[in-house]
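Lecture notes, unit on protein representations.

Consider one protein chain, 220 amino acids long.
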Amino acid sequence: MRELPLTLVAALLISLLIKTFLLQAFLIPSESMEDTLLVHDRVVVNKLTDKADEIHRGDVVVFRDPGGWLPAARGDNGGVRAAIHRAMVFVGVAPSASARDLVKRVIGVAGDTVVCCDSQKRITVNGVPLDESYLYPGDRATPSLVVFNVRVPQGRLWVMGDHRSESADSRYHLGDPGGGFVPVADVVGRAFARVWPLSRAGWLKEPATFRQARLLRAGS
């Protein structure tokens, strides 16, 4: 019994170190990534993949609000349960439901030209059309109602949700100071697995369309 407090403290410290430097759980709060990620799904994020050369087209990333993408934060509702949950999130044993984090799919990295759309209503990256079979079924015929033609600056990403008609992503912030691009510095990490509910647990794999030889030759 004398060793129990020390064991608990050690376990919490290990959990905090993992959450700070390696892995973190996040709760999906919206429909913007359906059907890849559903509301209340839990994902695990690899926090080591937060540098420009570690983020690739097709990755699902969690990032901090670049500024103005989300409504103003509400005040804490307080209470013992809320305090306990905050503590569990802090040490990494509960998923974060922070309103200041977003999750989207990377469509373009630095140097890419991303266009909507070609004559067949497909998003193109460096002139190569994407086969976006991962999109929400109702959005596959028209992957974007917003027309755009952008070149991604250094240190930035162009991101879009898989449920395009429900995702206020890079397209809807073209007029913002950041031009709709997400700074790599704001990326928390890459979501690589769904862990809850267990019926949906599995890896989040890079869609095959981003491995096209033409696309790889055209970019990095």
